[in-house]
Amino acid sequence: MEKPAHQKGSAKPAMPKSDVSAGVGLAGLLGLVFWLLFCRTYPITAEFFDIPGPRERLSGPYAALAALLFSAGPMAIWSLLVDKVHLRPSTGIDWKRVRPLSAVSEVSITKIAGLWATWAIIAGLYCLARWYWNGQYLFAIDVLKFAILPMVVLSVPYVLWLDKRMVEPRDHAWHFGAMLIGREAWDPEEVKKHWRAWIIKAFFGAFMISILPPGWSELVLANPSELVSDPVRIGLLLITALFVIDVQIGTVGYLFTLRPLDAHIRSGNPFLGGWLAALICYPPFVWGVIGNGQVLSYEHNVAGWGHWFGGNPTMLWVWAAWLIFLTAIYAWATVAFGIRFSNLTYRGVLTNGPYRYTRHPAYLSKNLFWWCSVMPFLVTNGSPTDAIRNAFFLLCVNGIYYWRAKTEEAHLLAEDPKYGEYHAWMSEHGLITSRLTKITRAIKRRRGPDAAVQPVQEPAE
To answer: Which parts of 228-318 are beta strand (E)?
Structure first.
């Protein structure tokens, strides 16, 4: 039998096909760039069309929020019209089989009860948690307070419409509703899956919304022409732009978990270690663990790359380019997910973009960025002790991300055989992962024949 064209002349097996096409993220990125340019040039547009009101750039928090729609819309259109994800069996929808409303009404009512109760409990948790009522979180809470009424109203027709077409409408939300009503058999494991998914959406959704405005405002108001001769300032601006891309696309992923887009959460990470490793990296937990002055402080008496390369324009430009490159990899890793980005979830298997070279491009680039930007081993007071402490604690932070990577792999390996194929392919053929695998195997061989025959635990970057 003749080999497929993509395998001709090569013994390398094909990588498993990605569940997310590269076009999805690209469409969202183009929509975001369009809205950004519109906001930056709004004074010209308002003047030309004689639009009443202030003739200022749209740098406010609600312009940042509107950017989500300009990212999500193109991604949804691409997913439906080009990738036709709504026809995939993984959606759990059979478009050719539409039940009458009478056949699903009881199921739908139970599910709606489960959803409304879930949102009420989450609202109560937001009220109890003090950090949601301070600083940048205030904007997120205002947005969520406004959104709850449309969510409650629209959930009724949406659930009824979807249940008529679902192969099995008794999903995680239904099991939680059935538990509350107490009239039908419900599965505790399904209830756990329901709450894992919604805790992830509630925790990370509020956080992501809260960090939308600052970067957006800086990017819309920036004047690159004033910075172009300063490698530090232009580098920081471009890094901010890449972080804005990451945050905007990532927020879309948390909020638009829609089953017809095949973007629903199949499962949340069931491992306690996975949750601990992930949550420790975000507020409020990170405020007491990672960062300057905290338990794992790696920024004591540091000055950063701009200080240490000051007076050497060539190195400043080179280092700025390197940091921009690392941040671009980080942003690319998020864009590659398209509409499916989120922590601690399984929403399909991604094998394209930077994930062709390493299983964890975001973690690898982020941790390298910290070493290269902070330079914790160089301290302004000349203290070897401070330098050693900084380096040690940043290594601890690197270890946390390694821990996160391993728990994520364990989750995905348990959920989808395709991820097992991808995991094995990367160990043998991934540009970065395969080399790390060879190093690991060489170390194990040096330990002796007993160690060499043990199962190899592949490294996570």
So the answer is: 267-268
